[in-house]
Amino acid sequence: MPLSHELIERLADGRFHSGQELGLLLDVSRTAVWKKLNHYKQRYGLEIDAVKGRGYRLREPLDLLNQESILQALAEGGLEPLPALYLHPSIDSTNSWLLQQAGAGAESGAVCLAEQQLAGKGRHGRQWVSPFGRNIYLSLLWRFELPPMQIAGLSLASAIGVLRLLHQLNVTEAGLKWPNDILWREKKLAGLLLEIAGEAGGPSQVVIGVGLNTRLGDQGEQIDQPWVDLDTIPHVMSHTRNQLASAIILRLREVIERYRLEGLAPFIDEWRQYDLLLGREVVIRSPGQAHKGEHLGIDPSGGIRIRIDGREQCFHAGEVSLRWGAGEA
Questions:
Q1: Which SS3 state, helix, strand or coil, does residue 228 take?
Q2: Higher pLDDT, 119 or 252
Q3: Which single residue of 26, 35, 45, 164 has CA 20 to 30 Å from 318?
Q4: Are both 118 and 251 inside the same structural domain?
């Protein structure tokens, strides 16, 4: 569903708009406009200036998502119409919401986007900071005939899909950190979270969640690890959030189709090329245990290979977290 808050859409340009103009827009009194804007300030964390004689403005302009723009870009990219594109102003988590829709029969290929997440999820239950009107919060549902165990490597392949897009935007120093993070100069730029369900022998359903930092600003102070956003990386090609959202959907669909036919094998060399930790000393942590060793790359199933005390061991993403130096999975 499209974002329906006309006041936010009118104020998105960051310019002053009079109370009279906004009242006419909604056919309400100036007092009602003031109350509605205060509601939005509280609900969405928006900073709205009110200046006597000038009116109201957003302290920073917003690049709002638009369903029609995204669908048009997908069509221009050669993608058949999506079975559903859900666009929410505010939601707990795009992954959680789309998982619920999957349980209710949502079709393979459905996409959920949000302007804001109130309970965005990272790996191991971490929060993904998700301020309103900034960044990309996107989830895509896909149904496979494969059993869940054979889909585990899709997490790595999906990260490669997003990385390809970032390289096209001239974010040339972006690279991969197992199992599904994208870093720029050792700072987190994007992360993926895959949630898989199904019968042991198949079929399965997976929701691929993508969080991409585009413009965090002061909101980044809430993040407890080194981070970066597209707005602060030099020489990034001009883009809108609608262009980013449609491009991510296209890259994920390309990756899913190839993975469905060939598995992880065609992605392993590319992962190795952009693996930022290859050859470095890392720490693998599981409940009650920590192992230090040399990162040797990934195995054909997507597990991480570590040389520990001269012996190679393999770990899988659901079991462990990965750290290096001051970094953390």
A1: coil
A2: 252
A3: 164
A4: yes
193 and 308 together in one domain: no
- For residue 253 the two structure tokens come to 């669909």
Task: Give the residue numbers spanning the domain of 282.
Answer: 277-328
| pTM assigned to the model | 0.90
| Residues with catalytic function | 123, 188, 323
Summarised one tens digit per residue, pLDDT across range 270-308 is 999 999 999 999 999 887 888 899 999 999 999 999 999
pLDDT at 154 over 50: yes
Helix, coil or strand: residue 76 = helix
1 within a domain of the structure (yes/no): no
Angle at 50 between CA 45 and CA 52, to 5 degrees: 175
Q: Name the residue with tokens 């599981």.
A: 286
For residues 41 and 47, what is the distance between their CA atoms, to the nearest angstrom?
6
- Radius of gyration over alpha carbons of the chain, in Å? 21
Asked if residue 250 is part of any domain, the answer here is yes
What gap in Å lies between CA 171 and CA 211, rounded to an integer? 16
Lookup result for tokens 């899913």: 256
Cα–Cα dist 21/40, whole Å: 18
Give percent helix, percent strand, percent coil of the chain, each to the nearest 5.
35, 30, 40
Secondary structure E strands in the chain: 48-51, 55-58, 85-88, 111-114, 136-144, 174-177, 181-184, 187-198, 204-212, 281-286, 289-298, 304-308, 311-315, 321-324, 327-328
How many whole angstroms separate alpha carbon 314 and alpha carbon 7?
53
Residues contacting 321, CB < 8 A, separation 6+: 123, 124, 284, 285, 286, 328, 329
Interval 196-201 mean pLDDT:
89
Instruction: Report pLDDT digits (tens) over 130-146.
Output: 889 999 999 999 999 99
Same-domain pairing of 44 and 88:
no
Q: What is the pLDDT of residues 33-47, one digit of tens each?
A: 999 999 888 888 889
